[in-house]
Amino acid sequence: MKRMVQAWDAVPRGERVELPPDPRALQGLGRNHLLHTALADLVDNAIDAGATDVLIRFVRQGGLLRGLYVVDNGCGMSPATIDTAMTVGGRREYGATDLGHFGLGLQSASFSQARVLTVMSRADGEAAVGRRLRLDGGFHADVVPSLFVDKELRRAWNLPTSGARTVVRWDEVTRFPATDDPERVEEFITDTQQKIRNHLGLVFHRLLTAHRISIALDVEDVGIGVAPPMDVHPVNPFGYRSTGASGYPVGLEAVHGSTPVRFHCHIWPGRSTSESFRLTHGGERQQGLYFYRHDRLLQAGGDWAGVATVSRRLQLARVVVDIDDAMAPMFLMNPEKSMVTVSPEFTALAEAAVAGDGTTFEDYLKAAEDAFHRSNKRERKRRKMVPPGRGFSPELRSAIASEVPFTHPNDQKIEVRWARFESDAFFEVDRDRRVLWLNKSYRKALLGGRRGSVNDTPVLKTLLYLLTEEVFQGERLGPKDKDNLELWQEILTAAARSER
Ligand SMILES: Nc1ncnc2c1ncn2[C@@H]1O[C@H](COP(=O)(O)OP(=O)(O)O)[C@@H](O)[C@H]1O
Ligand SMILES: [Mg+2]
Fold it and tell me: InterPro entries given for it (predicted)?
């Protein structure tokens, strides 16, 4: 068939019209943010500002959650910089180690969670400044009177090293529950703060470990006071005690143009209930590539960027990739900084990467699968145990469940309970009712000043469970069991007496 070559007309141009952005565009910002990812973005800003301490404060008034503060002791903002800062997409000159990037973080993080954003700050030798933006206020900011800014900056923040330089305040927080039911609010706070601490602990684990930043959370009840702060602890996704395969971790390297790209390949020894292994999604899906930029974690696994497919057998494999400036063009980061997209040449690089001793990515994946098989076998070979029941917290029970296979699921569980004894014996095994009774007269001493509850003294109960579990199995007590019980009773009773 004969082809006709047709002209394709370019679009002609007439006069111009101005199309200023509709302020409602702001409402679409940061839609993928969750409270904890939004807060991570504000912590990024504090770190860029050179802060050593960050405080995140929930504010409650009359039972209702009213607002949130993020306060830092960084360099603060001058009257000139605060207006750029409050401009959507307002970019500044970025330094080599900065975490900021798009000039969008502050607004998208804030407006994904709240309707009103107020920023109050004071830079060295400058006047205190404050600006307030409303989500429905268009591209206009209100100037906050400096008297109020001063008052806010001078509040009793729990910043250990120095006073507050920048205070970011959210009002009308849409992600807070609308209820003032104290129990539900309390539950929300506990739950949310735990999520925030987990996420920030993970994202900033390197900076936290290096003591370059500390982050704390607290709750203020207006007119009543502030509860003691809780620190964010580092959650290191590579925090296993011993490697799952000898010779690992291994550093593989490939060269892109003149840029070396390194893959630090780790193998966990087995599934674990530790926070470091579980992270946010339960661990199994946390295999894959861990991208860091300037020591901030951008993506916590979940993907192999085309080098492998996420699978059960690879769940012990985690790889560190530090993105430096030379490598940056190969990556795209989503604005929420929670995901990294790689260019196709990156996959090819990973496939070509080798270690000094010749180890390839494929070798590594194979070693990780083998380690998983070994750990699985180890777990399968373990003796079945009667599951723990009342007296153990749900978390503790699931930690035990993930390590040991249980006898039949319908089996009566082993309870550990306190009771008044006639004698001074420390414990008593009630095989028929599957209860391990503990002598209440030692309880106070063992609690060491803490309050008792159904699930108290977890270490003691777990040790006793591990020690005596076998005694609860079988038709009858054998002579060996009887002798063991006598032995434990004598020794533990003596130990318990010296606790008093
Ligand atoms: N906590 C802070 N301390 C000092 N300056 C800040 C702080 N938060 C934001 N800024 C200023 O606001 C600007 C805009 O922040 P943001 O919208 O997050 O964009 P980006 O971080 O990508 O630059 C920052 O570049 C910085 O100049
Ligand atoms: Mg930012």
Answer: HATPase_C_sf
| Mean pLDDT of all residues in 248-276 | 92
SS3 373: helix
Which residues sit with Cβ closer than 5 angstroms to ligand 2, an ion?
45, 100, 105
Q: Which helix (H) or strand (E) covers residue 375, if one does?
A: helix 361-381
In the structure encoding, which two tokens stand for residue 324, read together? 């430096």
How far is ligand 1, taken at its centre, from the CA of residue 227, in Å?
Answer: 29
C-alpha of residue 416 to centroid of ligand 2, in Å: 51
Three-state SS for 241? Answer: coil
Specify the pLDDT at position 31.
76
Strands (E), 337-426: 340-342, 415-419
Q: What is the pLDDT of residues 117-158, one digit of tens each?
A: 999 999 999 999 999 999 888 778 999 999 999 999 999 897
Q: Please give the residue that has the higher pLDDT: either 16 or 487.
A: 487
Q: How far is the CA of 199 from the centre of ligand 1 (A)?
A: 21
* 423: enclosing H helix or E strand: none
Whole-number Å distance, alpha carbon 37 to ligand 1 midpoint, is 16
Domains of the chain: 26-231 (3.30.565), 250-378 (no CATH), 394-499 (no CATH)
Q: Which of 106, 108, 121 to mutate to test the pocket of ligand 1 (most atoms within 8 A of CB)?
A: 106
User: Half-sphere exposure (CA, 13 Å, Cβ side) for 112?
Assistant: 22
The sign of the dihedral angle between the CA atoms of 305, 308, 311, 313 is: negative
pLDDT given for residue 444 in this prediction? 95
Q: Tell me whether strands 141-143 and 64-72 are parallel, antiparallel or unpaired.
A: unpaired
Digit-coded pLDDT (tens) for 290-317: 999 999 999 999 999 999 999 999 999 9
pLDDT for 405? 84
Closest CA to 390 of 472, 463, 456: 456
- Token pair 């580092």: residue: 234
What is the distance between the alpha carbons of residues 44 and 92, in angstroms, rounded to a whole number?
15
Mutate to test the pocket of ligand 1, among 33, 39, 48, 75 (most ligand atoms within 8 A of CB): 48
C-beta 262 within 6 A of ligand 1: no
What's the rounded mean pLDDT across residues 398-415?
Answer: 85
